[in-house]
Amino acid sequence: MFLLVNLKTYRAGTGKRAVRAAEDARDVAEETGARVAVAPQAADLHAVADTGVETFAQHIDGVSYGSNTGATHAGAVAEAGADGTVLNHSERRLKLADIDASLESARDESLETVVCANNPAQSAAAASLGPDAVAVEPPELIGTGTPVSKADPEIITDTVEHVSSVSDVPVLCGAGITSGDDVEAARELGAEGVLVASGVVKSESPYEAMLDLVT
Ligand code: G3P
Question: Are the C-beta atoms of 169 and 127 separated by less than 8 Å?
Answer without folding.
Answer: yes
